[in-house]
Write a structure and sequence with these properties.
- By secondary structure, this protein is an alpha/beta fold.
- It has 10 helices and 9 strands.
- A 7-stranded mixed beta sheet has the order 5-4-3-6-7-9-8, with helices on both faces. A two-stranded antiparallel sheet has the order 1-2.
- Helix 7 links the parallel strand 3 and strand 4.
- The protein is elongated, with a radius of gyration of 21 Å.
- The protein starts with 7 loop residues before the first helix and ends with a strand.
Amino acid sequence: MSAGSITVRGLLAVAKGRLDGNDASRENELLLGHALGRDRAWLYAHADDPLAAADAVHFHSLLVRRAAGEPLAYITGRREFWSLDLAVTPDVLIPRLETELLVELALRRISQSAQVDIADLGTGSGAVAVAIAHERARARVLATDASAAALAVARGNAGSLDTRNVEFAQGDWCAALGNRKFELIVSNPPYIAEADVHLARGDLRFEPRAALVSGSDGLDAICAIVRDVPMYLKPDGWLLFEHGHQQGAEVRDLLQRSGFAEVFTERDLEGRERVSGGRLAQAG
């Protein structure tokens, strides 16, 4: 293709077949839009506009990275979650659709008018904390993470979305909560076992291991959270967290043995056990 004939339509035609999967065409468009600094709607409206040779070179470099398996979110630096446009970097886990269930279940337990204190443990990109704070403007959300780099991403997302009811603290799980108590604590902790073969496949190869792996059975972080959270919940406060689809029975048992009532597990859109939780039972 000569420099004078380079167009959006032409570049997308050349890219066809370079990526695998049912989503390849959409990904090609997102990568080209990123290379050009334009959205997909602009691509459709300007399909036959001439483009510079440098644009084609940049687009090709992005295609090479994606074809090698690098996650689209890390290449573009963006990911949509709960209809919010979030920045992501290799310092944080890529927000996933199934984690929106955690947000949904949290919102069911917070009225629009309530002035409640909420903590998000291991916030990563801030996706869950920012989504909850965005929907519940009167809530006070504390987002924590052991990683300073992850907190920097989360702070940036809260700032860019003008979400002012989120604050941040660095620390490992409940260690970052200080002496505060909360009506609701949520978490999307690491829950993959160290030897899980999926760690060598797909996007997981590129994501921070500390955000994915938690001991030989994947339950180390969840055990620590369930053990320590009761000290930081107000009476009748709730704990909700995401977990692996084969861990439901074990985490329900953990919750019950730690003094939680109304213990439940909710399935995601694909029918897999995904989020569990319980209400802290009052003594007596």
